[in-house]
Design brief:
The protein contains 10 helices and 4 strands. The chain is mainly α and 295 residues long. It has a two-stranded antiparallel ribbon. It has a two-stranded antiparallel sheet with strand order 3-4. Strand 1 and strand 2 form a beta hairpin. The longest helix is centred in the N-terminal third of the chain and has 41 residues. The protein is elongated. The model has no long low-confidence stretch (mean pLDDT 86). Bound molecules: heme C (HEC).
Length: 295
């Protein structure tokens, strides 16, 4: 019996440990919250997951049933031996209950008389039990913790309080959002050759600008943007500002309200990436030659 329970212990422990190790590892890998992970699961994965979970629950129930049956069998065997007058193991306290007595510093039932208080209310009597040591330890730990907490948060102001933490998080998120959406240093503009910028600029251009400038930028209503002739200048700053402010009197609107600064920067770089290409049907040169400095 003893060995059996040891084996059972292992039989429970190993799969549980394995389960947590695997889920921890995969959580690390994807570094997503549980909620996102579930949301991103495909239908099959979800069904598989539910099935696995159901299987685990069933396995657990079977295990409990086995443990219960074994304890009943043990009891029956014992009773039979007692009836037949065979020697039986002293019915020692189970490890569990002796462990409980120990951790709770409880007085064994046989000795309870010693701690009985001498009042008796209609037969209800009271024991003067000790507080469990773990309870007392928690009590002391929480006092020490409280002192530490007060020193850190209220005396030395070493860490932000909840409200400040919230402000900080909001400020960080706002900065992050600005960085992603709209922060371009307009005092030092330059063409970028970051493929992500160019790719995004292409999308912006084809959606908004190609109607007048054509997909290949050869020009139609608007001028050819691939040649070296520029009405408003061909530097990164010139192009950026032309797009941002537009030339409303000539039919080119200001894009400031419709595109983010990042999009304007991207489309500026995309225009530059098509410089000196040969569009199918280029419009005649307009403006003056702008020479790029050797890069
Ligand atoms: C409705 C038509 C139209 C659309 C749409 C349009 N443009 Fe223009 N664009 C023009 C016209 C017309 C000009 C010439 C303005 C002038 O003559 O001063 C121009 C000029 C320009 C210039 C300056 C060219 C030079 O020679 O200096 C650039 C750069 C430019 N457009 C980029 C864009 C971008 C980028 C978009 C999309 C976000 C866009 N345009 C959308 C009509 C348009």
């Amino acid at each position: 019996m003893k060995y059996l329970s040891q084996i059972l212990n292992k039989a429970i422990l190993i799969p549980v440990l394995a389960f947590f190790t695997v889920s921890y590892a995969s959580a690390q890998e994807e570094s997503e919250g549980l909620y996102e992970t579930i949301q991103n699961l495909s239908e099959t994965e979800l069904i598989l997951g539910v099935l696995t979970l159901g299987l685990l629950v069933v396995a657990l129930l079977v295990l409990l049933a086995v443990i219960y049956t074994l304890s009943v069998v043990k009891m029956i065997v014992r009773e039979k031996r007692v009836k037949e007058g065979l020697p039986v193991e002293e019915k020692s306290e189970t490890t569990w209950s002796s462990w409980l007595t120990k951790v709770n510093d409880a007085v064994p039932v046989e000795e309870e008389e010693e701690i009985e208080l001498d009042h008796d209310y209609d037969g209800i009597r009271e024991l003067d039990n000790h507080l469990p040591p773990w309870w007392k330890a928690l009590f002391w730990v929480s006092i020490v913790w409280g002192i530490g907490y007060m020193l850190v948060y209220h005396v030395f102001d070493a860490a932000p309080l909840q409200a400040e933490e919230y402000e900080i998080a909001v400020a960080e998120a706002r900065a992050e959002a600005e960085k992603m959406a709209n922060v371009i240093d307009e005092s030092s503009l330059s063409f970028t050759d970051d493929p992500a910028h160019i790719e995004n600029g292409k999308l912006v251009f084809e959606a908004n600008c190609a109607v007048c400038h054509r997909n290949d930028m050869g020009g139609q209503v608007g001028p050819n943007l691939t040649d070296e002739y520029w009405i408003h200048g061909g530097s990164a700053e010139d192009i950026y500002m032309t797009i941002k402010n537009g030339v409303p009197e000539k039919g080119m609107i200001s894009w400031e309200d419709q595109l983010t600064k990042v999009q304007i920067r991207n489309v500026t770089s995309y225009i530059h990436s098509l410089y000196d290409t040969e569009p199918d049907n280029p419009k005649e040169p307009q403006g003056e030659v702008y020479k790029y400095e050797e890069e």
